[in-house]
């Protein structure tokens, strides 16, 4: 059992103590905060190496931060393993680190895991059921891309039975968070009357939102629909 110095009274205390028995200072919480701060510094150093193109050192320091339990580092270590950046590509290791971050509720890690299982990447057996479960976990925690993915599954009828109304429901959630692909898809569905009555003005609103974020197809369809509106019937 290691002893640490209480920052408040200066006496030696067990590192496992919730609080200093002498002055009541929260030892456990203080140590945890200190470890997280150290891990964040390691991750920031790794990020600096990454942006200068020194991927081996980036991998080194992101790994250190991940081992210390930093959520962002764990997810990004998974990315480095998946892409083979600064280390040999290893999908099994990528899954391991994505899983650690996913278990802490990281929606991006859940999404990245879902992509691996959906595509059967790197020799990992394709498992669409597991992929959909991960999409749903991520979507339910507010990840816009995961919400769009579920909407697309309903739209295409690839895993779920095709259901345009369900697709609209999920696209609406994603689009409300600013995801431009969902905004475009909503515009298209309102224009074509898929799962809803045709509504060119609703379509225009969603096309505008997507186009304002640089979605080229949305801009093209917006221009086309604006030219074809018959204002005489309004």
Give the percentage of residues in beta strands.
under 5%
Unreliable parts: none
Tell me the radius of gyration: 24 Å
For the residues shown, what is the average pLDDT?
88
In DSSP terms, counting alpha (H) and pi (I) runs of 4 or more, how many helices? 11
State the order of secondary-structure elements, H for helix, E for strand. Answer: EEHHHHHHHHHHH
Number of strands: 2
CATH architecture of the domain at 144-229: Alpha Horseshoe
Provide key terms for this protein.
11 helices; elongated; two-stranded antiparallel sheet; mainly alpha
Describe the protein's architecture and organization.
- The structure is a single chain.
- This protein is an all-alpha fold and 234 residues long.
- It has a domain at 144-229: Tetratricopeptide repeat domain (Serine Threonine Protein Phosphatase 5, Tetratricopeptide repeat).
- The chain has helices at 27-51, 55-67, 71-83, 91-103, 107-119, 128-140, 144-156, 164-176, 180-192, 200-211, 216-228, and strands at residues 3-5, 12-14.
- Strands 1-2 form a two-stranded antiparallel sheet.
- A hairpin with a 6-residue loop joins strand 1 and strand 2.
- Helix 1 (27-51) packs antiparallel against helix 2 (55-67).
Give the secondary structure arrangement, pairings included.
Layout: E1 3-5, E2 12-14, H1 27-51, H2 55-67, H3 71-83, H4 91-103, H5 107-119, H6 128-140, H7 144-156, H8 164-176, H9 180-192, H10 200-211, H11 216-228
Antiparallel strand pairs: 1-2
